[in-house]
Amino acid sequence: MKILNIQLNCKRIRRDVRVAPNGFFLCFFRTPVILECGESGKTLCPKSIAIFSEGKLSLCSPNGRQIKFDMIYFTPSPEECDYIKSSGIALNTPVTVKDDFVISSIIKNLRVKFIEQCDSFSEFSALSMKMLFLCVSEELEKAKSRDNSDIIPRYSQLCSLRESIYESPQKNWDINVICNNMRMSRAYFHRIYTRAFGTTCHQDIINSRILRSEELLINTDLSVAEIAEKCGYDSDSYFMRQFRIKKGCTPTEFRRNTAENYMNIV
User: How far apart (Å, rounded) are the C-alpha atoms in residues 116 and 221?
Assistant: First the structure.
């Protein structure tokens, strides 16, 4: 598996993509998008993922707003191509995912490791891509077997809340206020949120802030205190403590390590 490029949270009104022979383009759409592949066009729902093979495709907004998506451009080995096929994934065929958190997290972690280019990146990327393929395959199976008994109460509302948390991690996300706004008890909210996404809202708030802090540490020269504030923390020491728990290092160490590894591959 050779990863050629990874981009997160791309924002475009329109984008044309040409996939070279033997290349593949994995795209995870966060917003509605019109997909034109060959002579056919199709409007996709948010949280759709697809793997495109060689050829040309165009992505554009159905409502004039920016489309948002993550992308991975890669070339698999023949064995990995066979693995994709054996997973039941049809190329150039989008799949709508019910829970996007795992997929989103894998892509974000791949982006960090892609920048670091550590010695184990080749193995890490191959395993991560297999995890992505498994997630897509599982979503296909869920779609086939899903019935009304699987519908989670207020699911669309929960999805909107979760998307807002990851879009704006700096906000003061108070669980009690959220429950009051949704007119439900804290216990009931916790139960259906965990059932929907396999994690608690509190953990999602933490994860969203750590993910945003990684982006700021890599892409800006802001101080740790400034980053803590932009990620919704009142205390930079508390931010550093949570960051170490999640990442196994301090924010300063993370910034230094990613910067050094990035310089080595430029």
Answer: 17
Residue 229: pLDDT over 80: yes
- What b/e string do you get for 71-80 counting C-beta neighbours within 10 Å, with b at 16 or more? bbbbebeeeb
Q: How far apart are CA 212 and CA 209, in angstroms?
A: 5
Q: Which two tokens stand for residue 147?
A: 């019935």
What's the total number of domains in the chain? Answer: 2
> From edge to edge, which strands make up the β-sheet containing 24-29?
2-12, 67-75, 24-29, 48-52, 95-96
Q: Report the range out of 133-142, 149-158, 229-238 with the highest average pLDDT.
A: 229-238
Nearest to 245 by CA among 213, 217, 218, 210: 210
Cα separation, 259 vs 232, whole angstroms = 24
- Rounded Cα distance between 212 and 216, Å, is 6
Q: How far is 189 from 193, CA to CA, in rounded Å? A: 6
Structural contact between residues 47 and 69, judged by C-beta atoms closer than 8 angstroms: no
The domain that holds 118 is classified in CATH as: 2.60.120.280
Spatial separation of the C-alpha atoms in residues 21 and 231, rounded to whole Å:
41
Helices (H) then strands (E): counts for the chain: 10, 9
**Mean pLDDT of the region 48-59:** 82
Domain that holds residue 245: 152-265
Q: Could you tell me if 114 and 199 lie in one domain? A: no
pTM of full prediction above 0.90: no
Mean pLDDT (whole number) for 38-61: 76
Proportion of the chain above pLDDT 90, given as a percent: 27
